[in-house]
């Protein structure tokens, strides 16, 4: 009987885990001058040079956060989990600017894209596709 129960549990666990992939993203936060707020970009690892990867809200407006912890709380609500963080200081002395890097992970199915997250570049691409579809 124990073997049957263990076999059933193993099958159920296998069904739940089948197709899941652990995906990573990096939050890159820079502090806005004079306000202390943080603007966050998301790096999913694709070629993103020259793209505007700042997080946007449902209206396509760039989101600002009170701190990196505020941004992490937002990402946590979307299922992302904290992995590691480090800071890079650009410049020297009191004029140096901190750039915060937080690595996050999430188990997803399929291509790993998160429908809850949008960047400015994604919004622009959607607008271009909608305009092309109307022509």
Give a quick precis of the structure.
This protein is α+β, with helices and mostly antiparallel strands. It is 30% helix and 32% strand. Strands 3-2-1-5-4 form a 5-stranded antiparallel sheet.
Report the uncertain regions.
none
Summarize the helix and strand pattern as letters.
Answer: HEEEHEEH
The largest sheet has its strands arranged as: 3-2-1-5-4
Overall average residue pLDDT: 81
> What's the number of helices?
3
For the largest beta-sheet, the strand count, sense and barrel status come to: 5 strands, antiparallel
Structure overview:
It is a single chain. By secondary structure, this protein is an alpha+beta fold. The chain is 30% helix and 32% strand. It has 3 helices and 5 strands, in the order αβββαββα. The protein has helices at residues 2-17, 68-77, 120-134; strands spanning 20-31, 38-43, 64-65, 81-90, 97-109. A 5-stranded antiparallel β-sheet has the order 3-2-1-5-4. The protein is extended. The mean pLDDT is 81.
Notable traits:
single chain; 135 residues; alpha+beta; 5-stranded antiparallel β-sheet; extended
List the helices and strands and how they pair.
Layout: H1 2-17, E1 20-31, E2 38-43, E3 64-65, H2 68-77, E4 81-90, E5 97-109, H3 120-134
Antiparallel strand pairs: 1-2, 1-5, 2-3, 4-5
